[in-house]
Amino acid sequence: MLDLGRLRALHAVAQHGSVGAAATALGYTPSAVSQQIAKLERETRTTLLERRGRGVALTDAAHLLSATAGQVLALVEHAEVALEEQRGAAVGELRVGAFATAARGLLPAAVVRLAERHPQLDVRLVELDPPDCLEAVARGELDLAVTHDWVNAPLAVPEPVSRVRLGEDVADVLLPVGHPLAERDSVVPEDLAGERWICQPEGTICHDWLVNTFRGAGMEPDLAYRIAEYETQLSLLAKGIGVALLPRLGRGALPDSVRAVPFRPTPTRRVFAVWRTQASRRPAVTATLAALRDCWEQRETA
Predict the structure, then answer these.
(1) Residue 97 near residue 145 (C-beta atoms within 8 A)
(2) What domain count does the chain have?
(3) Residue-wise pLDDT tens digits, 80-105
(4) Domain membership flag for residue 302
(5) Domain with 124 in it: what CATH number?
(6) Maximum separation of any 2 CA atoms in the chain, in Å
(7) Closest CA to 96 of 137, 52, 132
(8) Using CA atoms, how far apart are residues 40 and 238, in angstroms rounded to an integer?
(9) What pTM was estimated for this model as a whole?
(10) Could you tell me the CATH number of the domain that includes residue 34?
(11) For residue 286, which of 298, 273, 299, 295 has the smallest C-alpha distance?
């Protein structure tokens, strides 16, 4: 009998392209994933990984076994959903992903709510960017995730995934207190022409929104500081460096030396919960969706 955990490790390597990436997705160390596959090689008496340059690659036999493993894991998930639905209780492990500001401003309250109402539910939380959350849900590595997108930077939803909108989150332009625009009631893109922007790195939804917004106004933003962490962005602003656009969800109090000014048109991102469609009837999923909806109105904002 092949071990399910070892099949999951092999399938993750095939999906992500490397042992390291598979380990990150599964929440293991690369060494642990390698050990799982080594044990699977002994179980099957088949070479599954081979050295290629500085890394490793799956053999033809491994690709064949991984495809079968994907089918087995889908059947196991279906069985788990059916059993949990029959029991009618939200129990067991639930793997949840969320983007950074949702993990800070929304999930803590939801996790507490779930612990109070469903003490047998074991919620495991991981912070990931929205595209990574969606991919992990589609592959079955996460059971549910909180994602977001912008109207002019939409995020496509894979076919096996369902989603529901939790609400909308507004973003403001943040300026050093001494900036000439800091006392304005609002600003428009033309007011910010020539400013040196602090923004998320390339490839993120927030980066794409900023670029698309200013290009739509006939301008190219000067992306001088590409910083992933909002705390670092605020530190730069507090020292009088740059301007930024930060959403309100999970933002917290601003330093005294930073001002938030509304932007027109109002930048609004749509916040969603996503899950695998075949798990829609799983009590743990429905309970978590209810908790997220309940906690949305009490979310932490600026």
Answers:
(1) yes
(2) 3
(3) 767 766 567 888 899 999 999 999 99
(4) no
(5) 3.40.190.10
(6) 71
(7) 137
(8) 53
(9) 0.75
(10) 1.10.10.10
(11) 273
